[in-house]
Every structure is written in C-alpha cells, then in structure tokens.
Amino acid sequence: MATTHIHHMQPSVMKPFDKCYLGRKFLFGSRIQTYQNPVPTLRRRVFVCRVWDALTSGNSVVMAIRKGMLLFRQGDVLGSLVEFDKAIQLDPRQKAYLWQRGLSLYYLDRYEEGEHQFRIDVAQNPNDTEESIWFFLCEAQLYGIHEARKRYLEVGRDLQPVMREAYNMFKDGGDSEKWTAK
Fold first, then answer.
1. pLDDT at position 5
2. What is the pTM of this model?
3. Per mean pLDDT, which range of 40-44, 56-60, 136-140 is the poorest?
4. What's the CA gap between 164 and 94, in Å, rounded?
5. Residue 50 and residue 77 in one domain
6. 126 and 162, same domain (yes or no)
7. Closest to 114 measured CA to CA, from 133, 89, 127
8. Which InterPro entries match (predicted)?
9. What is the pLDDT of residue 127?
10. Residue 159 forms part of a structural domain
C-alpha cells in the first residue's frame, strides 16, 4: 500500500524556485502534492504570493531604502534622498521610520524637512536618543542653539551610557571636555 501511495504522488505544480515559493516553505508545507488536490493548493499559493507582493510592494521598498543607504555612504546624498522618497511613494508608512532620510535632508541643508523627518521618527520611537539629537541639530541651524534647546525633543532613558551623555550634552550644553577626558 505504501508503494502505491508513493506512485500516485507528483512534484508540486509550482516550481521550487518560484519567487513566491522561495524561502516560504513554512507557509505551504511540503512541495509534494497529490493528483487529487493540486489546484486549490496552487490557488492558495498564488493568492498568498499576491498578498505578500502587495504588502511588500514586491520588495521594491526595501531595495529603494538599501540603495538610498548605499548612495549616502558613497557620498551621493541627493541620490539617497531620491531613493528614500521613492520608498515612501511606494509605501507611505515607511516615512515614520526613515531616519536615514533625515540625515540626507540635514546634509543637503534642508533643515526644516529634516526636523520634520526626525520629529515623526521620534514620535514613532520615543526612546530614540540619536534622532532627538539630529532633530536638535536641524533646529539649531534654523533657530539657533538656545531656541533649539528650548524645543528639544524629550525621549526615554537610553540604555547606552555614551548616548545618554551625548543627549544631555546637546540638551543642556554639557561640558565637552568631559568627553575628551575619558
């Protein structure tokens, strides 16, 4: 009986290296399907693949962000901003997490837009010390250091001592000599 059962099995209708199948075996189980029910499994796979692509924009968003980060590291700050904006156009939810875009804006002297980018990033992650500092740097360019300190974004306590020190130094005008003495 076991031999007969194996004889009636065939490989899945989907190719094992199909872009939607690759890496998602855990969603679909085995690649082996029986003759009795290949079509519903295929439909389910196609449906799940289409949902996945709709949610991830076919990974175009991730690729745009990665390309933007690479361009920034290579010194093409304007090109990085174009890629970050492309990611937001593909998936507007990304804007709240794209602190990298804020860095590009800062280095392009677009401080008001950078300030806005860092503000929404900190609103999304209220413990983000570094983005609060970048927000301050944008504000200092726009309004001066004293006004920027009045408007400083409060964040939760950072677990990294060096980041707490940096945060306090920018916020309160701490002693920079203390940093070089350590």
1. 44
2. 0.65
3. 40-44
4. 27
5. yes
6. yes
7. 133
8. TPR-like_helical_dom_sf
9. 87
10. yes
Query: Do 79 and 115 belong to one domain?
Result: no
Q: Which two tokens stand for residue 35?
A: 């003759």
Give per-residue burial for 52-83: e unless 16+ CB within 10 Å, then b.
eeeeebeeebeebbebbbebbeeeebebbbeb
Which is higher by pLDDT, 156 or 26?
156
Q: Tens of pLDDT along 109-134?
A: 999 999 999 999 999 988 889 999 99
Look up the domain containing 170 and give its range: 110-175
Query: Among 98, 95, 163, which Cα is nearest to 133's?
Result: 163
The residue with tokens 């400083």 is 152
Are 162 and 114 in a shared domain? yes
Is 34 strand, coil or helix? strand
Query: How many of the other CB atoms lie within 10 Å of CB of 42?
Result: 14
Please indicate, yes or no, whether residues 90 and 114 belong to a single structural domain of this protein.
no
Determine, yes or no, domain membership for 70.
Answer: yes
Catalogue the E-assigned strands of the chain. Answer: 9-11, 32-34
